[in-house]
């Protein structure tokens, strides 16, 4: 890798997966520790003035965007401002910005998979913030890659998977929507995609723009839950063996989560040659890491 790579958010699950996978391929990242209060305009300005990487992967807010149960409006606003400044700095220093985004920018009203050409209409505060962040990145830094991911699963104790498995240890009904659809995406697979994109950018290929990536085989939360519980029960005694089905409209997060979160991944395949991997194959190593950490 000829490019000097900087990673913001090296301490979270996706950052760790990226560092782990990069090490296997002799790809290193400069991964600075964030200030105590998190990155802001001043600290980002100083960081990039001092270091001048060729590409920056911004995973600083990964947990809030992909794993947290909820995020305050104030926190999202601060993150919007920080990313806007980061995009301006990247443009000023001619740094390529790799910025994750999410299926949350869509409202889920389509019957078919969302492509990059579909107009975002986000539902909740998080989706709206992500859409504004995407727009600010496009406006400020033409040399960008925006990667919209599907339902990312990682080994965080308090992430999506962790909260689900904690509930499965309690003897009470575990309700999941059976009429909501999306693409589970194990964190290692998301990291693989970022590495693949970086390798092509290292060849000076100007492939800027927005791309979708999500695990192969769209499914429902109830089917995903069944697969996770089947795998988890081989490692831990659970109170719940099978989740119960409920309607999307009855789910507590129905106002935030799109009913259809399925992403079409043809553009990333045709541009970068990145093929979607089956999410089921990623569950065993993911659960192994999760139970090693609890």
From TrEMBL:
The keyword Nucleotide-binding does not apply. Pfam families: RmlD_sub_bind (PF04321). One of its GO terms (cellular component) is cytosol. InterPro entries: dTDP_dehydrorham_reduct (IPR005913), NAD(P)-bd_dom_sf (IPR036291), RmlD-like-bd (IPR029903). Pathway: Carbohydrate biosynthesis; dTDP-L-rhamnose biosynthesis. Residues 3-290 form the RmlD-like substrate binding domain. GO terms for molecular function: dTDP-4-dehydrorhamnose reductase activity. Its EC number is 1.1.1.133. It comes from the Bacteria. Binds 1 Mg(2+) ion per monomer. Its cofactor is Mg(2+). One of its GO terms (biological process) is O antigen biosynthetic process. The keyword Oxidoreductase applies. Keywords: NADP, Oxidoreductase. It catalyses: dTDP-beta-L-rhamnose + NADP(+) = dTDP-4-dehydro-beta-L-rhamnose + NADPH + H(+). Catalyzes the reduction of dTDP-6-deoxy-L-lyxo-4-hexulose to yield dTDP-L-rhamnose. Belongs to the dTDP-4-dehydrorhamnose reductase family. This is dTDP-4-dehydrorhamnose reductase. It comes from Pseudomonas cremoricolorata.
